[in-house]
From TrEMBL:
Signal peptide (UniProt feature, chain positions): none
Cell inner membrane found in the keyword field: no
Name this protein carries in UniProt: Class E sortase
Residues annotated as transmembrane: 7-25
UniProt lineage: Bacteria, Bacillati, Actinomycetota, Actinomycetes, Micrococcales
Superkingdom of source: Bacteria
Pfam families: Sortase
Annotated keywords: Hydrolase, Membrane, Transmembrane, Transmembrane helix
Length: 234
């Protein structure tokens, strides 16, 4: 009984350490890598690309359609003010663990790219490896979500969300849940696990492309300070 008790205590300690590593240390490591990736991406631009110009009108021309980079390549940086004024996460090509466990948000290769009609769908962890979508349930209709790319800034407006089972992959269709229907909108779909500390379901958040503006016009006012901070390396 004494030996069994000691084994159970040891097992409890090991499990406790594993939980600390999974829920805390993986986030610490991922936050460092993701912040570095954001700074490196933003610093590729000239300073005017991060300067706010509130009076500049949104670009009325059709937004450019991005080409998908190689697996693991950076598409851009996603800013979600509802998640905090400092929220900025890199978006990479690919949705496998090699992408999601290191640099945050991954693009499903089978879905559209920004600027195209259809569904630009991203996946991200909710509680580990940076917890990039931990607060997805806090989004409110009308919230802005911004994607910064080398071409400029895409502004999406959050529309609605739903909870589905893991096998319901029709949420990734060009028109979600509507096979064979031709898309007329450019969507941004965020997908993550649900509930918060489980993975028996998936939380899906839909946003619609509202506008696009080239990098030469500067960052949208709501995220200008965050973009400028990344440009300075802070």
């Amino acid at each position: 009984m004494q030996v069994l008790g000691e084994l159970l205590i040891t097992l409890g300690v090991v499990l406790g350490l594993f939980i600390v590593w999974q829920l805390w240390w993986t986030n610490v490591e991922a936050d460092i890598r993701q912040d570095q990736a954001v700074r490196e991406f933003v610093q590729e631009f000239e300073p005017p690309a991060a300067t706010a110009r509130p009076s500049a009108p949104a670009q009325k021309a059709a937004p450019p359609v991005l080409e998908a980079p190689a697996h693991g390549g950076v598409i851009g940086v996603l800013y979600i003010p509802r998640f905090g004024e400092d929220y900025a996460r890199p978006v990479l090509e690919g949705s496998g663990r090699d992408v999601l466990d290191t640099l945050g948000l991954g693009h499903y290769p089978s879905t559209s790219m920004p600027g195209a009609k259809g569904n630009f769908a991203l996946a991200g962890h909710r509680q580990t490896h940076g917890a990039v979508l931990d607060n997805i349930d806090k989004l409110v209709p009308g919230d802005r979500i911004y994607l910064q790319t080398k071409e400029g800034f895409y502004t999406y407006v959050f529309r609605d969300s739903r909870i589905v089972l893991p096998h319901e992959v029709d949420v990734l269709l060009p028109v979600p849940q509507k096979p064979g229907v031709k898309p007329t909108e450019s969507l941004l779909t965020l997908t993550t696990c649900h509930p918060r500390y489980g993975n028996t379901e998936r939380f899906i958040a839909y946003s619609v492309l509202k506008s696009w503006q080239p990098a030469s016009e500067g960052a949208p006012p709501e995220i200008a300070a965050r973009v400028a901070a990344a440009l300075k390396g802070s």
